[in-house]
Design goal:
Number of helices of chain A: 8
Number of strands of chain A: 17
Shape of chain A: globular
Radius of gyration of chain A: 20 Å
Oligomer: homotetramer
C-alpha cells in the first residue's frame, strides 16, 4: 500500500507549486534563488584550491543501461593523414541524454504531469524538433552557486541505502546536524544515497524497478530552504514509488511543480573523500550543460571547487 | 611562400618542448601550471556574481559543418506513457567531438607529430577502442583557474580578423596593454579573433581552408607566461598555414610540444559584453569536459564567472 | 503560375484515390497488384543470369546531403583482439532513412495529406515510437515482380532532364514505344530522368529546390496500368512544384492516394547499360527493405535480374 | 578438451584454402561459383509466386543485444510542417553491422587470421576509414542464386539444437536425404539450427558464450559442393569453440580461407512453413546488401522466392 494516496500527492503538488512566485513568464524556476550576491558569496567557499568531478565515466551496457552510449573513432593518429605534417585522433559521440546510469541534468521540459509542463506550459511545446520552451539551453550560462553535500549513509552508519529505501525529511535534518552545515537559499543540494558505491561493490542491477531516493515529503525541506538545484547519485526518486498512481513523484514535484532542475546519477565518492578529510561539506559548484537548443537535458560533469 | 621553413618550425617545436619539465610520466602537461594556490586565488576574481557561457549552440549543417551533430527525440510528453501518472520528454545526442563549428576541447592525444603524441607517447596508444593514454578523462576533475580574454579586434579597431590573418606576439602584448591585464602562470587564456561575429554577420564559410588564428611564433608568449590552456573563437590555427609542410602548427606546438589543451570554436560575444562593461578582462573560469574515457576531447560549455 | 490549381489537384487526388479498391482494412495498397501469377511470370524475365544494383553508394556531405550518413569502425583487424586466434573488422551505421541522395524506399506512413495517411489512417498512428500502422515492415517479405525501366532522356535525345523539367504522360508513352515495352499490371516501374548522370558530371546541387520529376498528371498513367511501385533516380517529384500550395504532389498521389511505395534516388546507370546492350527493358526485380518495425521507410539496394 | 587441436585446425584451414582457385587478384571468393547459367537456372525455382523474408525485425536490448540499434523519429506527420500542403513522417537509423541478434551479412574483410584477411590481403587494408579491399560493396550487385534450406532440428526430431551442439557433416547429409534435395555448385546454403525458435520460446540468452552452430569439419561439405554463401539462424559458429585457441573457426574457414560470405542471425521460421507445406526446400534467393563502401558487412533482408 502506498504511503501517499493520489489525493495526498495532489495536495502536496499544489502546495509546492503555490510557493513558486516568479510569474507566468518565468522559465528559470528555482534557479531564481541564485542571486548575484549568493553566487559571489559562494566563491568564498574556495579554500583548498582543488576541483573534483561529480560525474561518473560514460558507462557500458548493463542491467541499468540497456541502450548504452558509445564513442566511435573517426580517425586514428597512426594512419596516413590527409593533412600535412600531422595526424589526428578524432571520435564521435552518441548517447541518450537521460537513462539510469550516465550523469545528466534534466531540463524543465522533461516532465509532463496532469497535462502540463512547468508553469503551465503545454506539452505540445515539445515536438519531434525539440522543446520550443523550457529546453536545457535556458541554462546556457551555467548553474553556479554554493553546493552542499548531505551524506545519508554516513549519518545512518550504513554503506548505502538499500534500493527501495527513502531519504526522509528527518534524514536531511540529521545529516545537516551531523555534518555541521545548513542548507540555505540558492544552494545546490546534493543528496548521497550510496547508489554508486553499491553499484561498484555489488555490480549493476535493474534500477528501473528498485532504487533508493527521496521520499516525496522531503521536498518540503527543499522548498522551505529555497534550494536551487537537486542532485543525487541515484535519480532522486525511489522505486517502487510510494505514491498511488504516480511513478516518479520527486521528478513531478521538483521539475514540474517547483521548477527545479534535477541532476541524476552523479558520483560523489571523490567529493566525499575530500569533504570528509576537510571536515567541510560546502563548496563552490559549477554545472555546465552543453548548449543543446531544444534539448530535454544534457550530459554533465558538475565540478565542485573546494 | 611560408613564413616558417620546416627547419624553423622544428627548431621552434624543440625549443617549446624543451621547456616542459614534468618528466616522462607526466600526463597533465600545461595543466601543471594551475597550482592549488593559483586556483584558490582565481576564485577571488568573482565580484559581480554573474556567470557567462563561452560556448555556442550546437550548429546545423553548413559549409563549416558538413557532418552536423543532431538531437533526436526518443519520447514526447504529449503521448501516451508507459509510466504511471507522468510522461517524459527525452532525446538522444549524436555529434562529432571535433569539427569546425561546435565548441569543444582537444585532449592531449588529439595530435600526432613526427610519430609521437605528447611527451613521447606512441600514436599506437590510440586504437579503435579509444586512447589508452592522454584521453580527455585525464581532465575529469575539470579545469579551473583564472581566465583572461584578450580581444584582438578591439585593440586593432576592426570588427574581426579576416580569414588568413594572424595574431602575433605583438598583438597579444598590445591587447594586454590596452586592456590593462597581464597574463600570468596558470592562466586560461582566451584569444578572440572575431570568428563568431564574422560568421554571425556574413554567414558561415569554408573555414577548413580560410581561418584567422595565432601565428606559431606567438606560442612563445604562452610558454613564457606559463599559460595552462588556450581557447579561441576559431581553432587557434590560421588557414592556410604559414609553416612549410605542417598544416596545424599551433595544434602541434600547443598540444603535442607543450601539453596544452586547446579549446576550439568558443563564443566570446556574451563574455566580451560583460568584460567591456565592467572594464575587467579576468574572471574565474571552469571547463568541465564530459567523462569520456578513451575520448580525444569533449564538447564543452566553459563558464566564466565574474 | 502553377499548372494545377488547388481545386484541380484535389480533383485528381480524389479520382486516383477512388480507384483503389482494397477496402478499409487494406495496408498493402498498390502492392496488391502483384499477384502470385504475376510474380511467377516475372521470374521468366531472367535470361542472361546477371544481377545489377539499382542503388548508389552511401553519399558524403554535399549541397544535396546536409546530414550525411556515416559508418564508424568499432574494431580494426590489425589490433590486439579479445577473442582467441582471430580478430574482426566491425563497424556501425548511422543514416537518415529519407533525404535527397541516398537510395531509399518510402513506406505508406511517410506522407500525411489533408489530415490523413493512406486509406484514412490517422497521422496520430505515427508517434515518437514510430508508426503503429503502415510502417515499412508491412513489406517485410520483399517486393518482387517484373521491373520496367523507362528512360526519358533516351527518348528525348538528351543526356538528362534539367532540374525543374517534367516527365509527362506523353513522355511515358513515347518511351514505351521507343523501347518496345509495355507497362502492365503489377509492374515495378522505374523512370529515369538522368539525375544521377547530371550529378556525376556537373556535381551535386541543391536538389531540394530544383529537381526533375514526374508531372502529377502522369500518375494517371500509373493508375491505369496498375503499377505496383514507382522508382526514380530523383525522388519522382519535380521542384518547384507545379501544384498550387502542394509541395510534393507525386508523393501525395502515389503514397497517400494510391497506396504506392516510392523509391527515391536510385541509380540506373548500371542497369541502363545492361538493358541498352540487351535491347530489353524488363527484368525480374527484388526490393528488400530492412526489417524496421515502426519505420517510415528503409535504405534499399533494389536488384534487377536479367 | 577441444575436438580439434591447433595443428588439426591449421591443416583443415590450409586444405580448404588450397581449394580456392581464383588467383591472387580475386575479391569475390565463393561467389565465383554463381555462374550466369546457374543464376538463370535458379529463376526456374519460382513456382508459387510467393516471396518470404529470411530476416528478423530489428531487436531491442537483451542479453544477446547489449548495444541495440535504434530508430529515432526526425519528423512526425501530425505536426506543423515547413512544406506546403503536406507533412512527412521521417526517421533515422543507427545500428551495429554485426552483433548477436540482428540479421546481417559479413563481408570478406570481416575476419583476420594469422595476420591476413582473405586471399592474403593485409589487415592494414582496414583503417578507421573502412576497408579499402574486400568491403561489402564488392557485392553491390546483390547475391542471387538457388537457395537451399537444410533443417537440422527437423531431421533430428527436436525443436532446436541446444546451445553448444554441433551440426556435423553427417547432419547435413541426413537433412539432404530427408528433404530430398541436393546441395550443388553455386547454391546459397541456409542451415537452420532452431536458434530463433528457441529464442522465441525461452527468451534471449547470452549467445556470445553458448550457441549452436556448424562443426568446423562440416565445412568440408560446403567446399566439396562448391557452396557460394552460408547463412544460419545462429552465426554458424558454435560456442564454446571446439578448436584449440581459435574462437570462431567456421568464420575463419568460411570467410578467411574459402572467401565465403556468411549471413548471421537470419530467421527461417516463415520460410520453413512455406517449404514444409510445399514439400520443396529450394528456391530463388536474393541477398541485397546496402551499398556501404568500406563497410565490413550490412544489415540485410534476404528474400526467398518460391
Amino acid at each position: 500500500m502506498p504511503d501517499l494516496s493520489s489525493a495526498d500527492f495532489d495536495a502536496l503538488y499544489q502546495r509546492l507549486r503555490g510557493q513558486t512566485s516568479w510569474g507566468p513568464a518565468d522559465r528559470r524556476g528555482a534557479l531564481n534563488h541564485i542571486t548575484p550576491g549568493r553566487l559571489a558569496a559562494a566563491a568564498g567557499e574556495v579554500r583548498l584550491g582543488r576541483s573534483v568531478t561529480l560525474a561518473a565515466p560514460l558507462a557500458g551496457s548493463g542491467p541499468d543501461n540497456p541502450e548504452p552510449g558509445a564513442r566511435h573513432m573517426k580517425r586514428l593518429p597512426g594512419e596516413p593523414s590527409e593533412v600535412a605534417g600531422v595526424s589526428f585522433a578524432a571520435d564521435q559521440l552518441t548517447m541518450n541524454i537521460h537513462g539510469d546510469v550516465d550523469s545528466h541534468i534534466d531540463a524543465l521540459c522533461h516532465v509532463s504531469y496532469n497535462g502540463t509542463l512547468y508553469n503551465g506550459i503545454t506539452p505540445g511545446a515539445v515536438t519531434s524538433q525539440g522543446a520550443s520552451e523550457l529546453s536545457i539551453d535556458d541554462a546556457h550560462d551555467g548553474i553556479v552557486g554554493r553546493g552542499v553535500l548531505l551524506d545519508i549513509p554516513r549519518v545512518r552508519g550504513v554503506p548505502w541505502l538499500e534500493p527501495g529505501d527513502h531519504v526522509t525529511l528527518v534524514d536531511l535534518a540529521a545529516a545537516e546536524a551531523a555534518q555541521h552545515v545548513r542548507v540555505g537559499p540558492g544552494d545546490l543540494l546534493f543528496v548521497r544515497v550510496g547508489h554508486r558505491r553499491r553499484r561498484g561493490e555489488l555490480g549493476p542491477w535493474d534500477v528501473a524497478s528498485s532504487r533508493a531516493g527521496l521520499h516525496p515529503l522531503a521536498m518540503e525541506f527543499l522548498a522551505e530552504r529555497q534550494v536551487a538545484v537537486l542532485g543525487s547519485d541515484g535519480n532522486s526518486d525511489t522505486a517502487p514509488s510510494v505514491v498511488e498512481d504516480v511513478a516518479f513523484p520527486v521528478h513531478v514535484l521538483a521539475i514540474n511543480a517547483m521548477g527545479m532542475y534535477l541532476l541524476d546519477y552523479l558520483q560523489f565518492d571523490d567529493l566525499f573523500a575530500q569533504c570528509d578529510a576537510a571536515g567541510r561539506w560546502s563548496f563552490l559548484c559549477v554545472i555546465a550543460p552543453l548548449r543543446l537548443p531544444g534539448g530535454t537535458g544534457s550530459p554533465v560533469n558538475p565540478i565542485a571547487i573546494l
